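Methods — Computational structure assignment.
A single polypeptide chain was analysed. Its primary sequence is given first, followed by the predicted tertiary structure written as structure tokens.
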Amino acid sequence: MNRKIIGSILITILVIMGVFLYLNSPWNKSDMTLPEGVKSGERSILKVGAQEQGERNVKSFDLTAQEKEWEISEGKIVNAWTYNGTVPGEPLRVKEGDFVKVNLKNELNVPVTIHWHGVLLANKMDGIPGLTQDAVQPGESFTYEFIANDAGTYWYHSHQQSSKQVDKGLYGSLVIEEKEKEYEKDEFFILDEWAVDQDKRDMSNMGGMMQGAMSGDGEADTKQMYDTFTVNGKSGDAIEPLKMESGEKARLRFVNAGYQVHKLVFPEGSMRVIANDAEKVISEKNTSNVLEIAPGERIDVEFTKRTQETAFIGQEQNIENAEDMVIPLISENNNQASDQEVVLASGKDTAKGISYGSEKLLFEDTPDPDVNYDMDLSMGMNMGEGMSFQINDKTFPETPPIQVKEGDIVKVTLRNTGRMNHPMHLHGHRFQVNSKNGEEFENPIVKDLIHVKPGEEYVIYFKADNAGEWLFHCHDNNHADMGMVTIVDYEGVYSPFELGGEKDNQPN
């Protein structure tokens, strides 16, 4: 093994150690300050992008953030933070065009918010403490309002100290149904990882770190932090089976709420990807039966049960804890999943978030950008704070913002020069992925999250058509918490909120 590789592995191990130290340190972020451009302008973000109720149908929900002992499986109990006492929180379903009102009440002893992941809404409803609102304090409430304009699969989660709060269960599903429903059977699955055995968070497993670093899969840190996989808050035999009859079709919506990539294996010839990040895709030639879902990503599939026999959808079995993440497929006359040996189909081609082009594009031709932004994703050291994850050699809130004017076409080149995976999520906009590693896609992909693995480069374009101050960050929230966050800063608008302070606003 040459010196360069050994050096890279040692750096990776130091980063992992830094993550553990950082997550267990008492460091207070209360002295952070938003970039100058985010604080200057003629219009407050509270005055832009208003969405009025009008004559629309109103769907109202009450969500209470509360602590709960949650049983993941028999003998595995965690102290969870929940919305309405369950993990995931109460599932929200609305119709395209509905006016949605969600009243959040906080019964935890820490501040919380709700971010509506992927939903295009007014900036002031985005749920980012210190940027679009003050965090909701213990005993207080806040009402979110927005129009459900775009049918698709979404999810909601806290954005206050999200590396901790999402980890502890503060998330749930949101479906905006099309006016004409396409599938009679429609199911939602949220994938996650948990640290039930807290020893997984210490630095004693140096062998595991070394092995993870040498594997080069970009997940050396994540794989050492968690020891249990879940589907809809349950693990192993506790996962609720999906009941379908032979020949029946269903829409299955998958969200990865964790920080580790998951690869689900389906029975051969049973699934076809139909949407990605709430955008329909072109997938008639789909031959895959393995689905790769990056942290924060949403992928919908059309699933057809081929036989009456019990079958399984499950995590590819080549990683630790894979047996936790298996969904039994049962039928009326064959419903004893626990008696069946779990056998997964052999993995064929893998469908990813960039495998299929989008039906509807933002730009038919490659546009001439008004703004160019190179986003270098790397690891480094912060004096006095240890290891960090950086954008252009800086950590939030010192990362250089993407400065735009309304109507600008923005080109962003994302380049991962580090050793870890970075699923980069843009709030308040969709972007078009035009190329990977210098090669243009024949069919571009419209998304709001792009998974950038070590050594990869993507070029994306978006239109600055939703005024405000919007986060663009890594959705491995542990990485975001250590600095990998920037802001799309619109000229002429400003945020009236402050990071830290008496409200303890911590957006990452």
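Note: The first strand starts at residue 43 and ends at 44.
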